User: What shape does this take?
Amino acid sequence: MLQQTQVATVIPYWKRWLKELPSIKALASAPEEKVLKLWEGLGYYRRARNLQKGAQMILKQFAGRFPRTLDDVLQLPGVGRYTAGAICSIAFNQPTPIVDGNVIRVLTRLHGIDADPKDKPTNARLWTLAEELVVNAESIQRGDKRNCSDFNQSLMELGAVICSPANPSCDACPLRKACIAKREGTQSQLPNLNKNAKTTPRHFKAFIIESNGSFLVRQRPAEAVNGGFWEFPNYEPDAEEPPSLPPHENAAPLCVVKHSITRYRITVEAVYARTTKAGSSNNGGEWTTLNEIDRLALTSAHRKILGKLIKMTPREAP
Assistant: This one.
């Protein structure tokens, strides 16, 4: 849940998740619709599917016990080098490196690395440096406790709180005497990240079709982006043909919703219309009440449209 999502956002999701799916077995056997509904709003829904696949793999290949070695953790769906390193070092106190944005900032400034950290050779060097540091931390004993967990968390916290992207608190940094960027005054230039890719606008039109208090919704194909989620019929005028809809009349503007996914800046223009022919041209859709729709896993933009509908009184309908 914490991949690409802030802690404050995750906490209520985490609590609901543990209440509904308190164990690996519960997650592995849960209907996918329930998993997606619990994840709704966190985005990057492949993470939720991978989490369930991972639970199923743990039951099948690891006898229901979460794997303890880096190689085994890396077998889990959706788990890459960073996540595996974080789990093994923080949870199991093993000397595995972590390289995230905060660590990159600390290491590039500390060592004066001015190459793009996304370039392969530079990225490999950063992982090597991070590994050397956590291995050294392991060798420093405090009684019978190894320091790997504390060290990696401290390194990330240093980047988040002290070695911040703008206006770093260098005078408070415990590494200031060894830091090349501090010595050369290049803190604002490091890390040397390329400019983000240009954003791409996309425009969609959604149809909110009502028939006697029920609304037409459709489920996205499993293989599509956000597969399995529900939404109102919609299309992208610049790239698609309009969807097949029941005969309707007097379509009127309802709302405009804006939403961002990675580099895409999405605008959804929703129009509202009524029909007396609910069974005509549903094209795989279903007629459901607003309360029923609220219980479905909806894409984020269409959840916003639903919020507008729920707040409306019948008199307010266009």
